[in-house]
Design a protein that fits this description.
Blueprint: H1 16-33, H2 43-50, H3 54-77, H4 80-83, H5 86-103, H6 110-124, H7 128-136, H8 143-168, H9 172-192, H10 210-215, H11 218-251, H12 258-286, H13 288-309, H14 314-328, H15 332-342, H16 348-377, H17 379-382, H18 388-398
Length: about 400
Amino acid sequence: MEPPAAATDTSAVDAAPAWHMLGWLAAAELLGMSLWFSATAVTPSLVEAFRLSPVEATWLTMAVQGGFVIGTLVTAVANLADVFPAKRLMGAGCIAGAIANTAALIAVSPLTLIATRVLTGAALAWVYPPAMKLVAGWFRRHRGVALGVLVGALTLGKATPHLLTALFGGDWQTSMQFTSTLALAGAAMALGIVRDGPLAVTAARFDMGAIRRIAAVREVRLVTLGYLGHMWELYAMWAWVGAFAAASLAAGGMRDVTRPAALVAFVAIGTGALGCVLAGRLADVVGRARIARASMIVSAACALGTALAYGRHPAWLVLLVAVWGFSVVADSAQFSALVSEHAPPDAVGTALTLQTSLGFLLTMVTIDALPRVAAVAGWQWACALLALGPVFGTLAMGRLGPPGGNNAG
């Protein structure tokens, strides 16, 4: 099959219209992805309301990951991200996610509650990867920082429910209704304002061999291995940093830890937005793989450092999670940028979706494992498990190529 041609008018590439469109894309992404941790952020309230067991409480987060994996796998196998307009997929994902999230308000059992989280995750598979493809259609030279801005928006979106918990406390219904409304606003932006860029490839035909062609590219394989190391750590950190903070604050003598722990979690996730943008700016200059390696080295050190900060003065805890949150996601956009540059041009959307699907499948392992380790060894030592991922990812990215290029890094 001949690859479809890209648009020839590149006058807006990396120019003012591109940055303007990036702003709208980032806003839509932030609003849509606020659904991700809408239940995780109010887990204690849901445990009480639905009498959830520890395993069921863990599945509030794992169900979203599982639904996202299912959604991205179906999207990748069917080439949906390259067959259908990305903005329409993004808008549909926001709407479907808002409906599934709202359905949690009428859930009658733990099983139906968890089912709504699976559906929410599946819907979000049409929000994140299509947004990355849209950014790639607007930027070439500054693709690293542009994707960094997008992932930063995603990070803020995922931090938002923790901020809402800090504001509303145990009122989980209001918090979840609020995030559904935000997602609908994101859909309106995606469908009404966002458009394809001058580098966007015209819609491709269904291609059963797309995944095989993607996997045949050595650079894509190495970047995906690095991404898997990154994902081993990222979502388990995001999912359980609130629990770690609560345990640490309690060990330090604090009594009511619910709202302070939620604020610590918001700081831990929210600082990642700044990390994504700054790392993106540096990556466009010194190389994407180099920035990815540096980020993973710092985040691995922070994962090991949790044992030292545990139970100490809250200032030490906030400082550690701020650095950890900054570094743990700073490299995320660079993995996407590298794949978008090395994958076959007519299969970029599928390549990004496939990479994302594999990464999120792996996150289910550490999200499930971390509280189990904490139950045996305590939260003081559990987070050290997460350092294994970035160490592996650093080794994989070291094989990508010599330092120095924007692509090889």
